[in-house]
Design goal:
about 230 residues; two-stranded antiparallel ribbon; 2 strands
Length: about 230
């Protein structure tokens, strides 16, 4: 028999209970995902502080993963906070740019921060024959851009996009910088490499040609010619 009482409050209550149950079920799933990502990062050599930062797990939980997984405690040391290490060679800068481009691609996929780093570093290891960046060094590359220590710019020679600190000598990507370490910047002729002394920017032929031009211009100015 119809009583005139609406079933709507009952339906709303059931919907709230269902939402509560779903939310309660998601939390363990997130915890499990974070733990699996932490295990993966530990196997890849990440330090405890970095694992905690990326997964949100406590220091106690993360610290307890190392002995059973690696047989030793977390590696010592801190996350880098300057670009000094990267600037010591063009090869390091070049590898940093490889990692940066991978981050640019994978950050658009909606993955968690830990998952992005894992996939970036695995792809980096597949791409390069002799990796120079540790997992921690790779993690710090996009941070250099976010803290405005490095910026995206275009190379004056090849016009590709790369990241690095601003230079007073123009913009040159690490690949071109490495190339011109062994080539004349004027004519492109291969030059003999000398470890000692200041590295030459141009070959002897271009240097003599430039010297004659400078001498000629100096003579014109001395004689009053424009």
């Amino acid at each position: 028999m119809y009583t005139g009482i609406s079933d709507q409050p009952v339906a709303l209550g059931a919907e709230r209970d269902r939402d509560t149950n779903i939310a309660g079920n998601i939390e363990p799933l997130n915890q499990a995902r974070n733990t699996l990502e932490a295990v993966h990062l530990v196997h890849m050599g990440a330090r405890a502080a970095l694992v905690c930062q990326l997964t949100g797990l406590t220091k106690k939980v993360v610290g307890g993963l190392y002995p059973p997984l690696t047989g030793m405690p977390s590696p010592p040391g801190q996350v880098p906070f300057t670009d000094t290490w990267y600037l010591k060679s063009n090869q390091r800068l070049l590898h940093a740019n490889v990692v940066w481009h991978l981050f640019q691609h994978l950050e658009q996929t909606g993955r968690s921060a830990a998952s992005v780093l894992i996939h970036v570093y695995e792809a980096y290891l597949e791409i390069v024959d002799a990796p120079l960046l540790t997992l921690t060094r790779a993690f710090f590359v996009p941070r250099l851009v976010s803290i405005n220590a490095w910026c995206e710019q275009a190379c004056d020679h090849c016009d590709i996009s790369y990241i690095g600190p601003l230079s007073h000598d123009g913009s040159i990507c690490p690949a071109c910088a490495e190339y011109f370490n062994h080539r004349c910047r004027s004519c492109g002729t291969a030059m003999e490499y000398h470890r000692a002394g200041r590295r030459k920017a141009v070959c002897s032929g271009c240097y003599k040609k430039q010297s004659r031009i400078r001498k000629h211009l100096k003579t014109r100015v001395t004689n009053g010619f424009p």
